[in-house]
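Q: I'm a student working through a structural biology exercise. My instructor gave each of us a protein and asked us to get a predicted structure, then write a short paragraph describing it. Mine is Acyl-CoA N-acyltransferase. I'm not confident about reading structure output yet, so if you can add a plain explanation after the tokens, that would really help. Here is the sequence I was given:
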Amino acid sequence: MAITILPASLEDLEACTRIELAAMLATSAHTRQQHPAGITDALVASRTARKVKTFGLPQVRYLKGVVVGSGLGGGDGAAEEEEQMVGFLRYYVWADDESARKQPPYESASTHPAGGGEQRDESGSDSGIVDLAAKKKEADEEDEASVLKRIDAKQSAVHYELRGRHVAGKKAVYISCLMVSPRHHSKGYGKRLIQPALDLARELGLPVYLMAQGAVGFYQSLGFTVVETGVADMAEFEGWSDGAGGEVVGEYRPSLMYLDVNNA
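A: Happy to help. First, here is the predicted structure for Acyl-CoA N-acyltransferase. I'll explain a few features afterward.
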């Protein structure tokens, strides 16, 4: 099924978030450990709000991939044509000295509450009777959120260190997020989605950078090479369960990757 690449709008950001979470939960053990409840409305709202904050900045670009066909929604297979977003790309363009100097983080995972950032009612009970079970549940939730927040911060720190050593201050195109719905993997949609960013980099004479973990092989097939692989030792979280009987993976190993499109 052919994919069409279009600019994404503000109204598309929630769908982008749902695709991002579905893809990460399907492919990343770390994400499954951080969000054992899966895709919740609160998590989607929190992640979407972060995207909204930076949407429209001149250096931030979004593209979406859509396909048109019958019964895409998985319903009764009605003959009418439906349009469905199957993936998206977010990339940054630092084409001048000023934008290169003011590189992200435009947002930081470590500055946002993990697990959706839900607001809790702190008013208590008028009866004066303390609900010990409710208090324990609230304390457990706060402890878990604290762990998730520290895991997020540690992983983000590795990204910032790699970028600081190799990308900071450089004019470049930076692929911030490339996601395809798990239902549509292995159809070539990721390659089609990233192509406009590579074309723009070629037009501007800029190198391309990105951060990858599980998809290193995919990017290598496009000509990217690994600049450096960072390591975050997660030993301090040893024994912390993901809520589904699992344990935190011992190391987080993202790779900064590079492509010179003009010599590819």
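A: Here are two points you could use in your paragraph. DSSP finds seven helices and nine strands in the chain. The helical segments are 13-27, 29-34, 41-54, 97-101, 132-166, 189-204, 216-221. It's a good idea to check both against the output above yourself.
Q: Great, thank you!
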